[in-house]
Amino acid sequence: MKKIYFTGLFDDLFSPKIIPIISMSVVLGILMIIFEMSFASIIFSGELAPFASRAAGLTLAGCFFICLIGSFSGSFKGIIALPQDAPTAVLSAMAVSVVAALGTDVSPGVQFMTVTAVLFISTVFTGICCLCVGKFRLANLFRFMPYPVVGGFLAGTGWLLSAGSIGVMCDVSLSMGNMTILATPENLMKWLPGVIYGGVLFVVLQKRSHFLILPGSLAAATLIFYGVLTLSGTPIQEAKAAGFLVSGVPEGGLWPAFSIADLRLIQWQTVFQQLPGVFTVALVSIIGMLLNMSGIELAAKSELDMNRELMVSGAGNMLAGFCGSVPGYPSISLSLLGYKTGADSRLTGVFSALILGVVLFFGGNILEYFPKSILGGLVLLLGLFFLWDWVVVTKQRLPLLDWLILIAIFLVIGIFGFMEGVAFGLVAAILFFVFRFSRIPVVKQGFTALERRSMTVRSLPHRHVLQTEGDKICGYVLTGYLFFGSASSLTDSLKKALDSDPSPLFMILDLEQVTGFDISAVNNFQRVVFAAKTAKATLVITTAPKRFAEALQRNIPGDAMENIQFFPTLNDGLEWCETGLIQKIEASIESETNLRDALFDRSVDDVMKHLKRQEHFETLVDRLGSRVTSLRHSPGSIIMEKGEIINGLHLITWGNAIESNPESGLRISCFEPGCVIAGPAAFTPCFICKSTFMADSDCRTAFLSFDTRQLLEQEDPALAIELYGYLIQADTGKEHG
Predict the structure, then answer these.
(1) CB distance 286 to 133 below 8 Å
(2) 677 and 649 in contact (C-beta within 8 Å)?
(3) Is the Cβ–Cβ distance between 353 and 131 less than 8 Å?
(4) Among 34-38, 446-450, 451-455, 466-470, the least confident range
(5) How far is residue 481's CA from residue 517's CA, in Å, rounded to a whole number?
(6) 420 and 703 Cβ atoms separated by less than 8 Å
(7) Closest among 702, 40, 575, 151 to 394, alpha carbons compared
């Protein structure tokens, strides 16, 4: 834990918020006492039932430390952390297994201490796991939870809270089988006032939020309750016996729950048999905590540091484990109760923990005067907030399909249970994600040799061939992840292209931006290979991952593999296809008397344009005269280097030059006589070169500096305008083959 917060504590201690903070602390303290006593009863049931009160000391002690540490160190200031129900459910099954393994020959004390040892190891191990995950910042591995799933989880939490509030008020759970019991006059008097209180308070807080509303309503409702008791002549003890007041809080202290001498009763061999369950408890606790924290983060619209929260929970669980408690983590319902009612302060958790401490060490008879209807009404209030925010409000914000997933999870939680709803939501979200992801096109760019060429410098007749027949080379730049959904749609698109008229002679697939693939993508590529062979087209795959190429070779027959060519770069693949196309065109006109003359006749217009452009360029360089500096570059020498500050452009008058990436060593562009290198440098006093340019053969350039170009505008404006026109027409001077 890197930081403990004290400043906010003192600020809130002397602010008007202290009134709702104290009121909410009392409510939360009572709720936590009830929860922890019920958790102890769940684990220590059956043959262990006589130890339930001692076990309550274990869970309350753990709750004290977990809540106190979370309040001081959590990244959400209203956090309320306590031992939770999910690990309790696992530990209850482990307790039954321990009792069965010990048999009936051992004393009850041995059973109690052995189960306590299982709790100790489970909680301490959970704390260690939380600390490790947080320390190495691995929380993101657990928190990839889709928004509709978290929303459905929160809506389901709202329903469970709303339904559970009835059980808090009258000790009868809300279900179809209990409707007649709940409708009896004695039970109706217990839960109806609480429902009215929670419903009215919900409507008021929706209209207006003020820090005095909650404590004022608590005071008013409590006065009304005791006023009704007085008018009806009902004694307090009778009301307590009838179930109208909180009961079951021990009169004396609950700690320590065992002595040092009791440790010798532990049967460690039986404890170690439960190690698989210990791992399960840790996993359930971490997932439950991150799910709760994601819900708090979403409901409070506040970004939380999950790794920090894991370390805080780890420290709390380490201390709670030595008390023999159940593992714990932040509670989404209790944490947001203070947030929703204006008691969002670290003091809320601190005071709640102190109330636990008083009950733990001294007993808490005073808490038994708190009306259960008011307590249940507050639980109902929070449930209504959840239902409103995540069932009603989200309908306006979410796409219909996502909202329907949310509602489906909500219904499954309400009908079948919490874990079933979360599991259903994950499966539904995964299925819809796969469906949507498969519809994202994996073809980033499609092209033909009419639009994109290799960096190879070719003769004018060969350029003409590519300009007229380039549509017989088609290429596709692929991106993203290739899996069964996206690969299937890609295969259909490629087969359609192979069946087009005219059909391509070469099909290039560039995989440089592909992030991964699965075996179904390889199987789908078989269809492309066979379709290309049928269409008499060569399939060219460039920048393919080694694993992909090996997978193709393992799964595609040898005769079909002969129709596939692999190249390390897209430029290499383009160059090979261009050469192959030129050779095919040359072979088709071999019957003509002179192949070169035939090609020249076909490209005579291009030749004339090139000669005219070259004549214009040479004339322009001659007119510039002494204003340009003639430079000579030997093969392989650098004309300008990446990152170099230059103040002028180069006009290539002889030979060839290339532009390359110094990191990868790959060619970017080729330049021939008449091309311009770094044209913007003549218009910028401190131009930074973005690539490396070097001579590919004996090369000569005419250098025009920034200062000379400015002077040219003053001395010969007409020549300057002619130069600028040429620079524009040169199309940055890059030769595309």
Answers:
(1) yes
(2) yes
(3) no
(4) 34-38
(5) 6
(6) no
(7) 151
